[in-house]
Amino acid sequence: FFLFVLGLCGMSVSQVYAELDRVSTVLATTNGRDKIMRFVDYSTRALSYYLSQAAPKHPQVATVKSVEAHLILARKLFRLGRSVEFLVGFIKVLKSTKDPVTISLAFGKALGYGMWLFFDNLVYLAKIKVISDRNMAQRDKKSAYYWFFGIMCAILINLREIIQNMLLGKQTSNSTYLQLARNSIDLLTPGFKLEFAAIRAIAPNKGVVGLAGSISSLISIYLLWPALKR
User: Which of 17, 143, 175, 203 could be disulfide-bonded to 208 (CB atoms 3.0-4.6 Å)?
Assistant: First the structure.
């Protein structure tokens, strides 16, 4: 039966093994598991919003909202201590170049993402009652500000690379364009939380933010997806 299903899909056993190997490679990394979980998280947020709008009295609304809340909390736990990752990334840039613009943008990105996760960690600790939740809303907003700033620096890094390649007559890789698209989409989440008018014009509700986060996560998973071995 299994071989029959493979035949219907037009895939040989060796092709299936190759695809499973690629899936395993992504799942073996912390970043890969995080992006897959992020996709599920934002997809659930979108489902939760649109289901509650279309059928607010539907019995499954409460269940989906509960799953949404648990996923958000689980991802906050998953991000504990990850701010160190961006510090290491900045140190690598320092070792690889002396260009002041590159270093400044890399520092801005590391600072933005690092402080976003630092305040995000504090919000999580407040939610599980490890620390006082008195300033939780303020910390959550600071987290969003730093995240927005970090993403802007990442976008400037992408744009600078594209413009430099154009001036030098070099070809820009597809991954750079995909990173630019992903980073631009990611601006919607902190921008929505901060109630920026320009962002709210694009993403007027949590449903759109959820869909944007899902698309961004799929791009991230694609960028992590290993090439087929030849």
Answer: 203
Cα–Cα distance measured from residue 153 to residue 107, given in angstroms and rounded to the nearest whole number = 9
pLDDT band at 212 (very low <50, low <70, confident <90, very high): very high
> Residue 27 corresponds to which tokens in the numbers above?
């799942």
Query: pLDDT tens-digit profile of 22-40?
Result: 777 777 777 778 888 899 9
Neighbouring residues of 159: CB distance < 8 A, sequence distance ≥ 6: 180
pLDDT digits (tens, 9 = 90+) for 139-171: 999 999 999 999 999 999 999 999 999 999 999
* Distance (Å, whole) CA 89 – CA 97: 13
105 close to 160: Cβ distance less than 8 angstroms: yes
Nearest to residue 179, comparing CAs of 222, 115, 227? Answer: 222
